[in-house]
Amino acid sequence: MRSVCGVVGKWMCAALLLSAAAVRAQEGPVRGPALPPNPLPYDLLLTNGHVLDDKNHVDMSGDVGIKDGKIAAIGAHLNPKDALKTVDVQGYYITPGLIDLHTHVYTGTGEKNSYAGDLSVMPDGFTLRNGVTTIVDAGSSGWRNFDDFKDRIIDRSRTRVLAELNIVGSGMRGAKYEDNLDDMDGKLTGEKALKFPGVIVGIKSAHFTGPEWKPYDQAQIAEDIAHIPVMIDFGANRIERPLLQLVESHLRPSDIYTHCFSGLRNEQDPQTGGPSKALLVMRQRGIYCDVGHGGGSFAWTVAKPIVASGYKPDSISTDLHVGSMNNGMKDLLNVADKLLVLGETVPEVIAQMTSHPAHEIRQEQYGNLSVGGIADVAVLSVDHGNFGFVDMYNTKMMGTQKLVCQMTVKDGKIVYDLNGLSADMWDATKHSADERQARRWTVFSERPFGATRGQRFPTSTPVNAPPQVQDKAIPKK
């Protein structure tokens, strides 16, 4: 580094050092000794599952092999001897890691009644346990505060957090900000998005109560600059700006209309109960219909007749925030369960949570199990019984199927395991896999076995008791 500093100057040398430090910080600390090489074809092998991958038209009984964070193979009867760790998932679906297209996770600022504050949630507590490996924060931040959101949440989360940038520069912070026409700047918003390709994946307009078309037209300016789609939460239902005019004149093919089953903005034909003319025009023009359940955007009286007519959503999403997570919405799988109640199949709802949202945000490296692609995987079961599913009006519809996440794999490593499918029994005398290699396939600690590697039953020490002399280690056999 000294010779480099002599050539490029001290200021450039400092910049190089800061850049390297930033990369190391994002990668996280390296714990433990370096891993020995793995000569086998797979680090992790999931066997005996039912593989669903809409993008690649896979619907089959089979196995999935993973190596170095990538999908290495999909097929029937892959050899367990070719893997460091094999997990039997018989009776379960193996799907791509789920994508939640509409969430709010810009929390930690301390701001009250704000989606750039206390109304948002920390992502990792609500995602991985539901098979969700990628989420999109839908406009909680704007160009003014995106850097803070990135530092607080995006760069610190195990979940892959992408963002739609709010057309309001200050983000989603309540009507005082979201109705401020002077802070809606498509040029600055688009230029900000260009600086973070693959992270900022869309433009969002939401909650606007005025009669003007400015937020939607400015969003299109940002779209032209950054070449990313616009998502619209159409805010107040104003006669001056009807939904039909929005989808005919102010949105473009491949844009996204969220909350399509709310019934609050003329999504439903009042005579037939089916989709309104606006929703039909959306489908004709290639504008995507996203569920965006939230706390107040999914009604059985709207969704049931619309879906019964054959009009199904393009994507299933939660609109996750503090007001929806304990309300009727619950989580992404619960929203998918509601579409199952309405007659969709398991492969359909999986597609609406994987390949479809990936396509909508033009990030098709996610939401599939392509060989060589990112190894994000969900292992899901379908429970059968009598279950109640609640809408925005606290009315319920009964169903007989319920999706449950049994395991989640993110970037090739197990990050959630509901029933310990990958775990050894507590009283086992040896590991089912080489624990020295465990960091290749799990983020969990593998407990050392044997007297020389740690006590099976550590002695309890009373509070304030004097330290005891440790017994001498038993020599290795």
From TrEMBL:
Transmembrane segments: none annotated. It comes from the Bacteria. This is Amidohydrolase/deacetylase family metallohydrolase. The lineage of its organism: Bacteria, Pseudomonadati, Acidobacteriota, Terriglobia, Terriglobales. SUPFAM superfamilies: Composite domain of metallo-dependent hydrolases (SSF51338), Metallo-dependent hydrolases (SSF51556). The keyword Signal applies. InterPro entries: Deacetylase_Atu3266-like, Metal-dep_hydrolase_composite, Metal_Hydrolase. Residues 1-25 form the signal peptide. PANTHER family: DIHYDROOROTASE-RELATED, IMIDAZOLONEPROPIONASE AND RELATED AMIDOHYDROLASES. Keywords: Signal. Residues 449-477 are annotated as: Disordered. It comes from Terriglobus aquaticus.
